[in-house]
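Example 9 (inverse folding). The structure is encoded as follows.
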């Protein structure tokens, strides 16, 4: 398997991670980055900023395998029941446009010919109850901290876990560690 460029897309915050799942755990995460745009900035400026930042990140990794794969979740829209994320047409459009800009920046700057949309991390259930989106973010950060010793943001953590998914045991350990810390 070649290196994976994994992306957690968003109009406000995008997380990037370059991972190599074939390496020993200590060497799997090669690079992470976070791109943030301000809501008050006009949409076209935000999209340009995202595209330019992704291009800059990609230029650092021109030695990626041309047959490499970029993984992007197609949408982060489905959360069940009362934990549903409030999305309107504008936020869906923004996420779609940001994802399109990211894919274009990657294809333009890397010799990568395949971009695969992968499903986002599934809905966790702990003790029979669905885990809120906020807790999923906290769990992702804790898993990356426990696995790699990295203290980074949730968007970069979620991007890493797209390329190297968490095991059920890691999810449970992260949950327990966070709950103990809270008590």
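The amino acid assigned to each position is listed next.
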């Amino acid at each position: 398997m070649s290196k994976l460029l994994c992306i957690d897309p968003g109009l406000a915050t995008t997380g990037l991670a370059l991972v190599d799942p074939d390496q020993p755990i200590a060497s799997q995460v090669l690079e992470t980055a976070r791109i943030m745009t301000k809501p008050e900035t006009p949409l076209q400026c935000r999209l340009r900023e995202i595209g330019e930042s992704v291009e800059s990140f990609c230029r650092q990794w021109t030695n990626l395998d041309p047959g490499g794969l970029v993984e992007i979740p197609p949408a982060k829209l489905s959360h069940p029941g009362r934990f549903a994320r409030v999305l309107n047409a504008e936020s869906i459009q923004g996420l779609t446009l940001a994802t399109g800009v990211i894919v274009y920046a990657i294809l333009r700057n890397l010799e990568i010919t395949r971009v695969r949309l992968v499903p986002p991390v599934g809905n966790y259930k702990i003790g029979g109850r669905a885990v809120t989106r906020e807790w999923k973010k906290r769990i992702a950060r804790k898993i990356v901290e426990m696995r790699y010793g990295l203290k980074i943001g949730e968007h970069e953590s979620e991007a890493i876990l797209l390329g190297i998914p968490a095991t059920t045991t890691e999810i449970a350990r992260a949950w327990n560690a966070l709950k103990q810390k809270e008590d």
